[in-house]
C-alpha cells in the first residue's frame, strides 16, 4: 500500500534529519528561507502505524500569471530509494500531492551514488589520451542497484534532466562531485592522501605567514568583494550579497554551526574566503572566493586544508568539494578544478542526477524550451 504523505512541521522535519548520518543542506527546512523566489513545504511519509519513514523539502516556483508551479526537491527526498515498490509506495503519493498543489512539473535529485573513482583512477584517466569523459572510465566502485532505481523511475514516467550550463554539471544540483573520505581516518592519514603539490603549497602558506580565521556575518561583505572578483575572473554571474546574508541568517538560526565562513589573512589583507555547510556527518565546501594578488603564498590551499581539518575534528565522515566536470579534455578550463580537488585525496562521485516528471506535458515542454533558450 502507498504510504501516507502529509506536510511536516519544522520540528518534525528537523528531528528526522537529525536522526540521519547524512542529508543534503538543500533538504533542511531553513533552505527554503534561502530561496525567496520559491515557496517551501516540508513533507513526510508515514506508515500505517504513524511512524515517519521519509521526509523531503519541496520548493515551488510559480509560473507568471498562472497558479501552476514547478515543484523541485533538490538532492531529495530522503526516502528508501532502494525499495522494490519505490514508484507505487513512495513516489505515487508525492506526485498526487504535488498535482493537487498545482505542480505542472516535478524535479527531484535522488541522493543515490551510482559510481565512484578513486584519486588514482581519476589521475590515470586524466593522463590517458584515449579517455575523454569520466563516465567512460572503469569506476573503482559501482552500485548495480542504481541501475534498478533508474529502471523503476523510467517505468513510472520519470526522465533524467538534460545537463545545463557547463558541460558535466547538472541543470540544478551537480551530478558529479568530489568527496574526501574522512570516516575511520586520522588527520595524518588525510594529510598523507594529499598529493605533493597540495603538501608543498600548505608549507608555502605556513612559511609566508598566512593565517586562517573564522568569520561572522559582519565579514560577509569582505567575502563578497572577493567573490565578485572571482566571478569576473572566472566568467560566471555572481550572487548578490543579500543572498549570502540571508543564507547565514536562515542556516545559523536553524543550527549555530550549519554555516561557517573562513578567511585567509596575509599581511593585513584577506586573500581568500569560503563558506562551509554542515548537516550531520556531511560537510560541504559551498562557495569560494579569492583575489589574484599574492597567489604565490597559496592562501586558498591553506584555507581548504584548515576547513578539511576542522571538518575532521567535528567528526565529519566526508568533506564534499561539490561539483566537478566529467570531461577529461585538456582544453576544458574546468579540468584544472578537477585536478585541484582530486589532489586533496578526493574521490570522483557520480549520483543518479536529477529527474523530471511532466504532470502537464504542454507546460513542462514550454518551460524546457524557455530554459534551453536562456
Automatic annotation (TrEMBL):
InterPro entries: Acyl_CoA_acyltransferase (IPR016181), FEMABX (IPR003447), PG_Glycine_Bridge_Synth (IPR050644). The keyword Cell wall biogenesis/degradation applies. It comes from the Bacteria. PROSITE patterns: FEMABX (PS51191). It holds the Pfam family FemAB. Keywords: Acyltransferase, Cell shape, Cell wall biogenesis/degradation, Peptidoglycan synthesis, Transferase. Belongs to the FemABX family. This is Aminoacyltransferase. It comes from Streptomyces nigra.
Amino acid at each position: 500500500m502507498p504510504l501516507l504523505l502529509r506536510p511536516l512541521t519544522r520540528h518534525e522535519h528537523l528531528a528526522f534529519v537529525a536522526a540521519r548520518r547524512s542529508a543534503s543542506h538543500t533538504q533542511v527546512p531553513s533552505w527554503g528561507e534561502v530561496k525567496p523566489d520559491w515557496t517551501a513545504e516540508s513533507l513526510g511519509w508515514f506508515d500505517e502505524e504513524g511512524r515517519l519513514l521519509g521526509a523531503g523539502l519541496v520548493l515551488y516556483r510559480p509560473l507568471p500569471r498562472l497558479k501552476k508551479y514547478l515543484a523541485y526537491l533538490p538532492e531529495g527526498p530522503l526516502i528508501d530509494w532502494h525499495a522494490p515498490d519505490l514508484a507505487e509506495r513512495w513516489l505515487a503519493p508525492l506526485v498526487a500531492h504535488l498535482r493537487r498543489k498545482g505542480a505542472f512539473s516535478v524535479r527531484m535529485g535522488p541522493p543515490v551514488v551510482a559510481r565512484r573513482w578513486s584519486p588514482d583512477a581519476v589521475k590515470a584517466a586524466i593522463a590517458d589520451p584515449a579517455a575523454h569523459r569520466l563516465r567512460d572510465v572503469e569506476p573503482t566502485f559501482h552500485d548495480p542497484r542504481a541501475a534498478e532505481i533508474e529502471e523503476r523511475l523510467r517505468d513510472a514516467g520519470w526522465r533524467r534532466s538534460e545537463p545545463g550550463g557547463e558541460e558535466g554539471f547538472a541543470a540544478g544540483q551537480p551530478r558529479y562531485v568530489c568527496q574526501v573520505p574522512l570516516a575511520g581516518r586520522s588527520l595524518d592519514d588525510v594529510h598523507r592522501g594529499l598529493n605533493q603539490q597540495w603538501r608543498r603549497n600548505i608549507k608555502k602558506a605556513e612559511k609566508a605567514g598566512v593565517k586562517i580565521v573564522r568569520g561572522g556575518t559582519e565579514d560577509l561583505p569582505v567575502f563578497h568583494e572577493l567573490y565578485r572578483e572571482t566571478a569576473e575572473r572566472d566568467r560566471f554571474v555572481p550572487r548578490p550579497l543579500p543572498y549570502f546574508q540571508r543564507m547565514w541568517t536562515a542556516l545559523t538560526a536553524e543550527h549555530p554551526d550549519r554555516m561557517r565562513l573562513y578567511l585567509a589573512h596575509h599581511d593585513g589583507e584577506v586573500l581568500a574566503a569560503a563558506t562551509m555547510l554542515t548537516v550531520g556527518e556531511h560537510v560541504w565546501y559551498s562557495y569560494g572566493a579569492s583575489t589574484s594578488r599574492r597567489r604565490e603564498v597559496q592562501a586558498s590551499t591553506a584555507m581548504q586544508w584548515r576547513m578539511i581539518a576542522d571538518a575532521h575534528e567535528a567528526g565529519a565522515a566526508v568533506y564534499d568539494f561539490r561539483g566537478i566536470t566529467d570531461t577529461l579534455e585538456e582544453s576544458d578550463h574546468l579540468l584544472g578544478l578537477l585536478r585541484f580537488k582530486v589532489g586533496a585525496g578526493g574521490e570522483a562521485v557520480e549520483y543518479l542526477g536529477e529527474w523530471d516528471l511532466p504532470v502537464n506535458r504542454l507546460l513542462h515542454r514550454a518551460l524546457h524550451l524557455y530554459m534551453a533558450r536562456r
